[in-house]
Structure formats: structure tokens, C-alpha cells
Amino acid sequence: MWNLVLCGLSGILLGVLFSFQRSCPICSKFDYDEKLLERVIRNDILLNDALDKITETKAKVEHVLTRIIEDNAKAVNTLDVKRKELDDNVESFINSVTRNVSVTVEEMKASLKSLVLQTDNELKAKTRQIDEKVEDFFYSASQAVHRNVTDLSSAVQLLVERTASELDIIKDQLKVPTSYFRARITASYTELSGAQDVVFPTVDVNEGQGYDPSTGKFTASIHGMYLFSVQYCVENNKVVHLEIVHGGKTLQRSTEYDSSAYFRCVTMQVSSVVAMGDMVWVRSTESSMLFSDSIRYNSFSGTLIHV
User: Can you tell me which residues the record assigns to a coiled coil (predicted)?
Assistant: First the structure.
């Protein structure tokens, strides 16, 4: 850009010099100014085109800005060199023709200095505009990045809180509530008739308070899989017929006859899914005789093993 201006100025000076050497009329000052104005306008158009392209993308802005700064530095350096050359040429030209065209030379020198000053001011103004637009662009970009980071941080925080809440729910679901009981018959002899509910009145453990020692029935407070166990001891030369029932439906049955005089004890157990509110108990299926002492327990127990 500055090369074109300087080349144009050099051409004008040479033209003036040749015109004086050929004793031709001096070129019109307005024609000269018009040509200079055209060059300035073309330079201004080029600068405006470069300014429009800056806003396309951040990467292009940085690249173009770097180029502009480099070109500006080169232009300033070139302008200084050309200005010195121009001053030298003008001074030489003035010395060579001062006696004939002193007035014209002074006017031309003033015009050239004014043009240089005007062009320099315009270049500085364009540079300031570019700096302001680049600064605005980076400020807007930084604000957008800050908003995006803030939104992302909020989303991550919300996700962490939601995940923690879901984990707490899962942990609560994985906790198996305690529901366990064990009760015994402490009487030495217990005679049962057919289809009689067996009551175990002495309670050793009753976690969850599901077992009723007055009825001998366990009522589930939690839906899940339960394991029930019954141990009974048989009177010598007697028979015991027992079953574990769930809501009146048989889950497990056992029969034992003792003819050895050892008062043998037998255990039966069964697992079953029991709904909340359902009852499980022990019942005799036929006439039976239970025996109990310090080493022989008649007991009924149950525990929740899975929810």
C-alpha cells in the first residue's frame, strides 16, 4: 500500500522535474491532489476490507491482527525511510531549481508534508479502530466462555447432587431390615390334638415385634423371603406330627416316633416369600406329645433373608 503511494509520489516528482527541464507548463495542483486522493481512497478501501475479514473468526482475527501489526511496523519503517528519501530528494530538487520555481517547490513541499501527516493520522485512526474491535471481540469471547464454564459447573454440580441422591436411594434399598424371632416351649410335656395351633410362649428374640407369643403366630411387617425353622422333641413311645403353615397353607411337614427312650429331637425348616401382613405358624396335623427339658428345646424361629 505504502509502496504504491511512494511510487506515485516519486512519479509525480519525476514528472514535475522533467516538465521543468522541458520548459513545459507546471501540472495542475488539483490534478495532483485528485490522484493522491484516489490513492488514499484505494488504501482506505483495502483497510476496510481487511477490517471486515477480521470479524469472521477468532483464529482469523488473531492472524490478521498479527499481519496488520507486522504490516504497520513495516509501513512505519518504510514510511520513515521513504520520508527521509523524500526529504532528501525534495531538498535536492529545491536546491537545483530554487531560483526558478521557489514558490512552487514550497507549495509542493507543504502539500507533501500535509499528505504524509494526513495519511499517518488516518493509519493511526484505523489502527485504533482495529484495536478497539479486537478488544471488544476478545472481551465478548471471554464473557461467553465464562458463561459456558459457569453453566457447565452448575450442570456438573446438579448431576453430582442428583447422583448422590440416587446413590442414597439405592443404599436405602440395599439395606435389609431386621426381622427375626425365636420362641420356645418350656413346659416338660405338651399334649396336642389334631389341627391345633402350637404356641411357643417363651420369647428369646423378637426383632421387629412380628411374633405374637399369645397365639404362636408370626405376622410379616416386610415383604420378602423368610426362612422358618422348627425343632421338636418326642416323648418316649410317642409320635409327633407337625407342619409349618403360611396363611393356612402347608409349607413343610414332619413326623417322628421315638421308641428308643432317648427323647429324640427333630428339626424341619422351609423358606418362603411372605407378603406384608401374612401370618406363618406351627400346627399339629394329628395328636402329638412334645417333651422338653434343659437339653431338649421345642422352638420356632424365623428370619428375613431377602427383601
Answer: none
| Whether 306 contacts 225, CB under 8 Å | yes
Q: Within 13 Å, how many C-alpha atoms sit on residue 29's CB side?
A: 10
Full-model pTM: 0.46
Phi (first) and psi of residue 143, to 5 degrees: -65, -40
Please report the beta strands in 34-185, taking only residues with DSSP state E, as ranges in sequence order: 180-185
| SS3 label, residue 292 | coil
The answer to whether residues 137 and 58 touch, using CB atoms and an 8 Å cutoff, is yes
Report the Cα–Cα distance between both ends of the chain, in Å, rounded. Answer: 85
Question: Cell triple for residue 169?
Answer: 436411594
Residuewise pLDDT in 10s, the chain (307 residues): 555 545 565 555 555 444 544 444 455 677 777 888 888 888 878 878 877 887 777 778 688 778 888 887 887 888 788 888 878 887 888 777 677 756 676 787 888 888 888 888 888 888 888 888 888 888 888 888 888 888 888 898 889 888 888 887 777 655 667 899 999 999 999 999 999 999 999 999 999 999 999 999 999 999 999 999 999 999 888 999 999 999 989 999 999 998 877 889 999 999 999 999 999 999 999 999 999 999 999 999 999 999 9
Task: Judge whether 213 and 200 are in contact, CB under 8 Å.
Answer: yes
What's the fold here for domain 180-306?
Answer: Jelly Rolls (2.60.120)
C-beta of residue 120 within 8 angstroms of C-beta of residue 79: yes
CB hemisphere CA count around 46 (13 angstroms): 13
Sequence spans of domains, the chain? 2-147, 180-306
Assign residue 157 a region (left: φ > 0; alpha: ψ between -120 and 50; beta: otherwise). Answer: alpha
> Do 31 and 110 contact (CB within 8 A), yes or no?
no
